[in-house]
Write a structure and sequence with these properties.
The protein has 252 residues and is of the alpha/beta class. It has eleven helices and six strands.
């Protein structure tokens, strides 16, 4: 193993469980933003700004007022879009097209990630609160599109976002995924609560260099986030380590 690979494996280790827990997983489910690409790409800041612009125009608010309203919608309804639909009957297609009209160049191609996802046994899905075109453009930029069986987006979810339990149940119903044989990768801890309760293995992606802080804090607090099985700040390194654990499992 090279020094780079050894460093990646150390950074990718789980904070609580043995990576052999992924033996038997037949469905690998990945959130999109800040999960399949690193938070350092800061793509979501563009989306956040576009959302504020949309709210400002749609509700005739100042930029500052729109930002506050946007965050209030997000905290109450899970997404700004859902708040706009419920309180102002905003048409979702126009909103989704507007807020995802961004520059994707900060997302760098990651051929190794594509290779590692492609080697995972079973099916692979993108499960996002964004829309399909945004997921397709992002995956194409990463160079990983061909490795996924399908994209389950906010439209497929009936515009009901994660972390609503109904959204995960609809995903399972549409895809036929058995949660006991699935793993979910996310950058938001609250979005891993329902998958954990359904029986999935759960992996939290945190910003680069933050894994020791997150895992250490949870361990010191007596595992205050039991719905998070694994924490990593390096998805590529984590999947490399998962492959190593699977390859060394009995019968492989």
């Amino acid at each position: 193993m090279t020094a780079h690979e050894e460093d990646g494996e150390k950074r990718a280790r789980a904070h609580r469980h043995d990576l052999r827990a992924f033996a038997g997983v037949e469905a690998w489910v990945f959130d999109l933003d800040n999960t399949l690409y690193p938070a350092s790409a800061d793509l979501f800041s563009q989306i956040d700004a576009r959302i504020a612009d949309y709210v400002s125009r749609a509700l005739d608010l100042s930029r500052e007022e729109a930002h506050l309203r946007q965050k209030a919608f997000y905290h109450e309804y899970g997404t700004t879009l859902r708040g706009l639909m419920i309180e102002h009957e905003i048409e979702p297609d126009a909103f989704l097209e507007f807020v995802h009209d961004i520059d994707y160049s900060p997302v760098e191609p990651n051929p190794e990630l594509g290779h590692l996802i492609g080697r995972l046994p079973g099916r692979k899905f993108i499960f996002t609160n964004g829309d399909r075109p945004h997921a397709e453009r992002t995956a194409a930029r990463l160079g990983i599109s061909e490795h996924f069986d399908d994209i389950f987006d906010i439209v497929a979810a009936g515009l009901l976002p994660k972390p609503n339990l109904e959204t995960y149940n609809l995903f399972l119903e549409r895809t036929g995924v058995a949660p006991a044989r699935a793993a979910m990768f996310e950058d938001l801890p609250r979005n891993l609560d329902a998958p954990h309760r359904l029986g999935m293995r759960t992996v939290l992606l945190v910003p680069d260099g933050a894994r020791p802080v997150f895992s250490g804090a949870w361990e010191l607090e007596g595992q205050a986030a039991p719905h998070v099985d694994f924490v990593t700040d390096d998805l590529t390194g984590f999947l490399r380590a998962v492959h190593g654990a699977l390859d060394s499992a009995p019968g492989r």
